[in-house]
What does this fold into?
Amino acid sequence: MFRLAAKKVDANGPEGLAAQLAHAQSCLKQLWPRGSRYGSTLGTLHERLSEGRLQVAVLGQFKRGKSTFLNALLGEPLLPTGVVPLTAIPTFIHWAGAASINVSFLDARPTEQQPVSGPRHVQDQLSRFVTEEGNPGNRLRVARVDVFYPAPILGSGIVLIDTPGVGSTLRHQTDAAHEVLPECDVGFFVLSVDPSVTEAELSYLDRVRPAVGRLFFMLNKIDRLPYPTREERGDRIPTACIARIYAGRGRNPDL
It folds into this structure.
């Protein structure tokens, strides 16, 4: 039987939190010397904290414009976009001085590195691995793809995450969207004016709320409405989901 000694640490600031995470990892290692998923999760959190890395995910239903929004933030058309549900695999976008792509697999295969020469080449390579057209049903067994690119928005330690959309007939995309939630420190939940909020979105928001530390809502495609109706619908469309999540919880959403 293990006896785990209590350890006092100053919880104020990143150093105190890092010490707490390290101590928790040590305790778990005593209990499960061969490792556990809890230890792995704590290790990932400790790594993100020590590196000063903030992981910002763009979340939502399929075809809400998540990848297009990320391309606008990046200032380059790196991510594939189209008229059918595209993103099937989580894509993590990091800063680096030279562009490259790392593909991680669900099986024992080593990570595959793909050198790239520019934004169009990045998009072409991503299409092979993260889209439903290039990798239908995830037949290539891809776990995630990491893109490294010298975009200014990434220079301060921000990692942007393009997540699969929920609510389509492709169940594996919804499963992948749920599985990536523990990786998200901050979430931008993308809604749109057409179609309006769906039950699939409300169910997904119930999963997102306890998993993501800070959640923002973004209303997309407002320019598709005639000008006289933009202000009215812009205020009304997010109301149902915001009320669903925050009513009675004493929290204020960011819009």
